[in-house]
Amino acid sequence: MKTLKFFVLLTYFLINIRSYSEPLDISVTVNPDQEAKYLDVLGNKKCYEINSYLNSSSFRNSIELVVLCKALYLAGIEVNFKFQLVPNYVRSLLEVEKGNALMAASTAWEADIDDAHLYKSEAVFKSKEFVKGFYTTPALIDEIEFKVHEALNHGTSPVNALRQYSFLSAKHWVYDWHVINALSLPVASMSGHFSLCRMLAANRAQVYMGEMVMIGRDNWAFPCDNIKLLPIEGIKLSFIQSRHYAISKTHPHGKKVYEALNIGIKKLRSSGELVKALYPLSHQKVILDSWVDLYPKQ
To answer: Which of these, 88, 187, 236, 250, could form a disulfide with 99 (CB 3.0-4.6 Å)?
Structure first.
């Protein structure tokens, strides 16, 4: 009996060693910037050896890849990413729907994941966990913050103060566009990231809604070409839509990866690792929790 038990345990051990020692090739859609930032965050380490998300290249696009890799590892799958370059979010999901890639490296809005062709993972961002702030240039930050804080101190909505400025966005950013219209904010449309930076630098628009989660630096400021955008303190947007990884239903490894990913995400959330990824510095969450949420009521 003892001999049988020994062989059962040995077999279990060998199976698990095998699953971790033979990485599974996974084709994931990324944009060039995402790939570069992820590789910089990784350095010479494996993803599961990353204990800190503090890095100059730590943005959502790179941290989501680390989280993806860690989640699969916790579920028994060590991965070898095969990056498939795509230009944008829409093309990324399209390639996965077609089965040309196993999954998208970035999370997608729940409503954008077509259940007929895609598996939807456990939420990486649950409702109200995906937070954006209002960013502006150094030349305008003091002026706008003064007006916003004056409104908050008088117990009135700062939205009227924000309506004095033009917001930079794009119609294909559906959820941002919805917020801007719901709050009746003036808007200037753009075509791409570089257009964003140039338009703000030229004062053709004054405010931009930027992400404030998965930022691995000691402040929320971020470079935009030759200017640095700064968050207007005290106000935020907590999106009610959740975000998930999208996995191909037609890819041979789709179901296996989908099931493993759900196990791993649950482990990351229950251990507190996912919150650590959302807020690499714990005080970031404390500060954001105290800011007024301007997300429009449904």
So the answer is: 250
